[in-house]
Amino acid sequence: VQLVESGGASVQAGGSLRLSCTASGYTLSNNCLGWLRQAPGKERERVTSYRSDGRTIYIDSVKGRFTISTDNAKNTLYLQMNSLKPEDTAMYYCAADRPKLGAHCVGEYRYLGQGTQVTVSS
Asked: Which of 44, 73, 79, 86 is deepest in the core (most CB within 10 A)?
């Protein structure tokens, strides 16, 4: 299984980026997927994810600005990021395959990409 992210860049505050994550050896559809990020000196955090019922979850700091989506035909996961802020600066990772428990995904992701750097300057 391989997850390959792309789309990271350096942008100014207020700008937009779309991150992509293409999977090989694994089918993304109907599985627990998400985007994580880790800023220097901080813990890795789950930015957004799909529940097993297909609903999406976002951390408060990105609600209304970030959108997770998938293209099943391309087996690709996306993260659209708008109105970027300097505090969004981090390495972003796509993640896949958490165990399902009812409508929820639980535990840790089994697969993680290598990351793509997003830097937002003020």
From this structure: 79
The encoded tokens of residue 23 equal 């999977």
Backbone dihedral angles phi then psi of residue 86, each to the nearest 5 degrees? -55, -35
Euclidean distance between CA atoms 28 and 77, whole angstroms: 8
Structural Rg of the chain based on CA atoms: 14
Backbone angles phi, psi at 27, to 5 degrees: -95, 120
What per-residue confidence (pLDDT) applies to 37? 98
User: Is residue 112 a contact partner of residue 36, using CB atoms and an 8 Å limit?
Assistant: yes
Closest CA to 70 of 23, 1, 108, 11: 23
Percent of the chain residues past pLDDT 70, beyond the cut: 100
